[in-house]
Amino acid sequence: MREPMQPSDEERIRRRASFDGVADVYDWARPNYPDALLADLLAESRLDSSSRVLEIGCGPGLLTRPLAETGASLTAVELGPNLAALARARLSGFPEVHVVEADFDRWDAPEGAFDLVVAATAFHWLDPERRVDACARALVPGGRLAIVDTHWGVGAEAGRFQFDVQECYARWNPGYDPSFVPRTLQDLPIRRPELERPDLFEPPRLRRYSVMRRYFAEEYCGLVQTFSDILRIESERRAQFVNCVARLIETRFGGAIERTDTYDLWVVRKRNVGRRHE
Ligand SMILES: C[S@@+](CC[C@H](N)C(=O)[O-])C[C@H]1O[C@@H](n2cnc3c(N)ncnc32)[C@H](O)[C@@H]1O
């Protein structure tokens, strides 16, 4: 499975906007975050009804709901109008949740206003030059920045599907890299230098969660249609790619595949005293 490569700024800005065009598919196809990750995130950030949370890139609200259920007041900044509308609809029962349609990179975040700033599968789409400082500035001293990264299809070892599906990428994805090898847990980073900022934060903490999932062909084909590397393929070729994957699962895997997805939860606590942010 492919993770977003390190795209150029232009490519990053184009690809991060692509989710909004498939907002409805995104809403049904993306699986929930693992319970253990949610439990650790809530425990570590000590959320309760007095907490103030900023979520960046909430999409249709996959992580937003469990955060809102704590009773915390929550501002969610979402770039895509369709995704923001879906999040508003999904969270209409939570009067303390406000979805703001905006580009976080240009949004004027209130300074020192949040106990938790969180981004789920969204941080890597933000401007790498300013995202860490912008989040730190929005936090109260002692507040937490939590980043969830999703590593689709990454487990202890790559399964046969991960290798066989390369046929579909090779045939239909013009950006196919023939040297690509499916990643495993040992390829994942265990350091995140951008968070190693003693001027702003205490040392970062990483927790990792792997979840084995069974996807029927239709479910998996829905999921791949929400990946930004697939969304950049021209629509006719993309449809052919999805057909190829569906056929592969039906003919070679009996209609369903099992794969492991891995999630990283990075948490850093803002120092109580430190350099002032200008
Ligand atoms: C992969 S989706 C993750 C959505 C959601 N957090 C989830 O876990 O399902 C990335 C999200 O970040 C949003 N996004 C990307 N860049 C953004 C930015 N600069 N400001 C606000 N939202 C952004 C996208 O529109 C999309 O909803």
From TrEMBL:
Q: Where is the signal peptide?
A: none
Q: Could you list this entry's UniProt keywords, alphabetically sorted.
A: Methyltransferase, S-adenosyl-L-methionine, Transferase
* Organism, scientific name: Eiseniibacteriota bacterium
Q: Where is the Ribosomal RNA adenine methylase transferase N-terminal domain?
A: 37-184
SUPFAM superfamilies of this UniProt entry?
Answer: S-adenosyl-L-methionine-dependent methyltransferases
Q: Which CDD domains match?
A: AdoMet_MTases
Q: Which PANTHER family match?
A: METHYLTRANSF_11 DOMAIN-CONTAINING PROTEIN, METHYLTRANSFERASE TYPE 11 DOMAIN-CONTAINING PROTEIN
In the record, the note on similarity to other proteins reads: Belongs to the methyltransferase superfamily.
For this chain, one GO molecular function annotation is: rRNA (adenine-N6,N6-)-dimethyltransferase activity
- Give the matching InterPro entries: Diverse_substrate_MTase (IPR051052), Methyltransf_11 (IPR013216), rRNA_Ade_methylase_Trfase_N (IPR020598), SAM-dependent_MTases_sf (IPR029063)
Protein name per UniProt? Class I SAM-dependent methyltransferase
